[in-house]
Amino acid sequence: MNVLIAGAGRLGTQIAQVLSTARNEVTLIDSDDDRVAELQGRLPGVLLVGGDACEPALLEHAGALTTDVVIATTGDDEDNLVISLLAKRQFSVPRVAARVNDADNAWLFDARWGVDVSVPAATPLISLIEEATGATDTVALLRLGKAGVDVIETAITPRSRAVGRALGEVGLPEGTVVATIVRDGQPTVPDPAIRLRAGDELLLVSHSATEQEIHAAFQ
């Protein structure tokens, strides 16, 4: 699946990390050149593009003509609407999802503006990806059908036996990798040497492990 994400803030970066780890082709756009430079080398497998995603030429350069999903996650509702409209009307993107930052603007995020899925800012990450990609699951477990993998979210509690241990010391089920660690609201590169803390949230990608097996490894 080819995914184009506009907005390299915390949310856009997390989505990019998860979908890239799940073997999707991901392009991440941001108008802040400093932010793009900061992310260079931190998002393996993600193509970073600097520029204004509200500009049709930039979207075309980033691959909008061949993308399957566009996700507008900027912090500006006006920008998200413009990006959605361009994606749907000019580039005929099959599925367009947009973040709603201000609840008062929610009524605008519909088919008239090219939005297939509108997602409130407070929506949990896993649910947001489910909605954006069209994947669904009855146990809050995201299955990316085309990738053949599951993305599972688990949290480190103060009573977890993984607290204080290096990530590399945790025995994970076969075929399972950590996509990202969210710490203090920010995505963190899952270096094997990083020591886990209470409050950390981990997103893992697995070809075969169950949600229960993943939780057991950390709890």
Assembly state: single chain
The tally of helices reads 6
Distance between the termini: 33 Å
> Which stretches of 5+ consecutive residues score pLDDT under 50?
136-147
**On the 0-100 scale, what is the average pLDDT?**
84
Lateral strand order in the biggest sheet: 3-2-1-4-5-6
Structural class: alpha/beta
Q: Helix fraction?
A: 25-40%
- Tally the beta strands: 11
Q: Helix and strand succession?
A: EHEHEHEHEEHEEEEEH
Main attributes?
219 residues; alpha/beta; six-stranded parallel beta sheet; 11 strands; 26% helix; 26% strand; elongated
What do you see in this structure?
- The chain is of the alpha/beta class and about 220 residues long.
- Helices cover about 25% and strands about 25% of the residues.
- It is built from 6 helices and 11 strands.
- Strands 3-2-1-4-5-6 form a 6-stranded parallel β-sheet, with helices on both faces. Strands 7-8-11-9-10 form a 5-stranded antiparallel β-sheet, with helices on both faces.
- The longest helix has 14 residues.
- The chain is elongated.
- About 5% of the residues have low confidence.
Per-chain topology:
Layout: E1 2-6, H1 10-21, E2 25-30, H2 33-39, E3 46-50, H3 56-62, E4 69-72, H4 77-90, E5 95-100, E6 117-120, H5 125-133, E7 142-144, E8 149-155, E9 176-183, E10 186-188, E11 201-206, H6 211-218
Parallel strand pairs: 1-2, 1-4, 2-3, 4-5, 5-6
Antiparallel strand pairs: 7-8, 8-11, 9-10, 9-11
